[in-house]
Amino acid sequence: MTQNTQKSMIKAGIMKKTSNKNEIVWVYGSSAAGKKIFILTILENKPLDLIESLGWRNKQIILCSESIEWITQYKGDPLGAKREGIPQIVVNLSNNNENSVILIKGQDLDLKNNRLLKVKAKLPGQKHRIIFLHADIDEIFKRINAKEWFDPKKETKDKLKEWLRGQIGYLQELRDDFGITVIRSNHEQNYQIINLSLDNILKNC
Using one digit for the tens of pLDDT, what is the confidence trace for 1-25? Predict the structure, then answer.
């Protein structure tokens, strides 16, 4: 069916018009929560149950690849300046696609610089969501221990909790502007939406 035929059928009342809105999705969670793995699992494995539970069936799923490539590792990292361009990249992706989900790996730097709100202001007609990947602190700390950059003198469980509390604090400030979905993250990549608020997660930090 051509696009012109489809428009004619909609006009004649033969076919209902479907929404072609995009959904802009920022993925957050602790370091080692598996944000990149979660995004790649959605893109490559396309787990049907998870995709349906997120409301993404029949949606084109697009990655903002720069959000994965431009990951800042330390204060003053030159990649931090590059991330300033992510909002416009997301806007361009949205303007060039429809009925799509655009996945972005978020960093605290984006929260501190109001990039989520900047994207929403530029794309007021689209749906905007935050996904927070949740895992128990003990499990997260175990994963961090396996990282190449892990330094037992600098990286402690208390420091991890403090950092996580800070991120959740930023996210809580956005809950009136964004839908927030909490998903349990585990090694088996058996992701499930859980009925857990950021407030409850914060209480356990």
Answer: 444 444 454 455 444 444 579 999 9
Domain ranges of the chain: 20-203
List, in order, residues 6 or more apart from 9 with CB less than 8 Å away. Answer: 15
Residue 105 has phi, psi (to 5 degrees) of -80, 115
Alpha-carbon torsion angle 4, 7, 13, 14, nearest 10: 50
CATH code for residues 20-203: 3.40.50.300
Residue 31's Cβ-side half-sphere holds a number of Cα atoms within 13 Å equal to: 21
Position 147 scores a pLDDT of: 74
pTM metric for this prediction: 0.86
Residue 194 in 3-state DSSP?
Answer: coil
Contact of 107 with 31, CB cutoff 8 Å: no
Which helix H or strand E contains 123, and what residues bound it?
Answer: none
Q: How confident is the model at residue 74 (pLDDT cuts 50, 70, 90)?
A: confident
Q: Which two tokens stand for residue 62?
A: 């697009």
